Structure formats: C-alpha cells, structure tokens
Amino acid sequence: MASQRTEEPMPMDHECTLRIKYDTTEQAHMVLRALSVDRELAPERANKELRVEGNFLVAHFKAVEFRLLRTTLSAFTEMVLLANRTFDLATDKLIQELQDEEHRPTAATATPQQKPRM
Q1: How many domains does one find in the chain?
Q2: pTM confidence score
Q3: Neighbours of 8 (CB within 10 A)
Q4: Residue 116 pLDDT more than 60?
C-alpha cells in the first residue's frame, strides 16, 4: 500500500520590498489596481503583496530561490514602467483635450465668416 506523502511548503527565505513614490495617493492607488489584476503563476514558489502607504506603492516579494526573486522583481518593474507610461500618456492626452476645449470657439463667441464677393 503506497503511503501518501504531503510535501512541506518550501521556505521563502528570499525577500525584497520596493517603495515606489507617486505624486499623489490617487496615482499610487490607480497603479495598484492595474497591477493587482494578475494572479501569481506559482504562489507556492514566489509571491507579492501590494499596498499603498501615503503616496507610495509598496510591493513586498518573497521567493524560495534568489533567482526566482530576481525574475519576479524584473517582471514587476516592467509592469510598473508600463503602467506609469500609460498613466503619463493618458494624463498628457487629457490635459491637451482640456486645453483644446478652452481655446475652441463656442457658438456665442464664434464670428461668422463672410462669403467672398464676386
């Protein structure tokens, strides 16, 4: 009769915490929500905990191997950079649209164009 063996979880001896500063708490929360969508592929081997403290996004990582910790950190920083670029582009576009709206003539201020005389 085969004995059932339950494997002990591997200890996550490798840890790292990143604190990423944003201009506002709202920006930190927006990036947190964007990055919280993905589940960990192998949570028993590496995982992360995300939270916001003031205007900082705080990410705490744990892994069973240093190599896995490094890979997890690398992937996370790439996702943060993408989220930041997306936020910056969206903000720039919104600012441009608001500026365009301010300079766009309204019906009350528009001057009628005269037809050329022949």
Answers
A1: 1
A2: 0.69
A3: 6
A4: no
